């Protein structure tokens, strides 16, 4: 497992993108986990989101959220470098 974990809800709009493939190819030290539910009831229907090392990341669109996820990953990785 990676030193940075990105968690996704399978029902979230962000899953219209291949987040797992995109993130894991760009950042080999990151693990992407997809769950049926992340227990933030209703949030997955409101806006695209993910959890990066226990921090919720939101975006207006899946693409916007992906960019914010990338930024959060870079911040997390900077701690280990």
Radius of gyration: 12 Å
Described by strand count, sense and barrel closure, the largest sheet is: 4 strands, mixed
The helical percent reads 25-40%
What's the number of extended β-strand segments?
A: 4
Strand order in the sheet with the most strands: 2-1-3-4
**What is the rounded distance between the termini?**
18 Å
β-strand amount = 15-25%
Principal-axis shape? globular
Q: Count of helices? A: 3
Mean pLDDT: 87
Stretches where pLDDT is under 50 for at least 5 consecutive residues are none
Order of helices and strands: EHEHEEH
Number of separate structural domains: 1
Instruction: Decide which structural class fits the backbone.
Output: alpha+beta
Task: Describe the protein in words.
This protein is α+β, with helices and mostly antiparallel strands and 81 residues long. The chain has one domain (4-60). It is 38% helix and 25% strand. It has three helices and four strands, in the order E-H-E-H-E-E-H. It has helices at residues 19-26, 43-46, 62-80; strands at residues 4-9, 30-35, 49-52, 55-58. It has a four-stranded mixed beta sheet with strand order 2-1-3-4, with helices on one face. Strand 1 (4-9), helix 1 and strand 2 (30-35) form a beta-alpha-beta unit. The longest helix is centred in the C-terminal third of the chain and has 19 residues, at 62-80. The radius of gyration is 12 Å and the shape is globular. The model has no long low-confidence stretch (mean pLDDT 87).
């Amino acid at each position: 497992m990676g030193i940075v974990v990105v968690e996704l809800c399978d029902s979230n709009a962000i899953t219209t993108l291949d987040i797992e493939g995109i993130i894991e190819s760009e950042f080999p030290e990151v693990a992407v986990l997809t769950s049926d539910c992340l227990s933030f009831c209703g949030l997955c229907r409101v806006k695209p989101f993910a959890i990066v090392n226990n921090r919720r990341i939101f975006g207006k669109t899946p693409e916007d959220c992906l960019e914010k996820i990338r930024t959060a990953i870079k911040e997390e990785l900077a701690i280990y470098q």
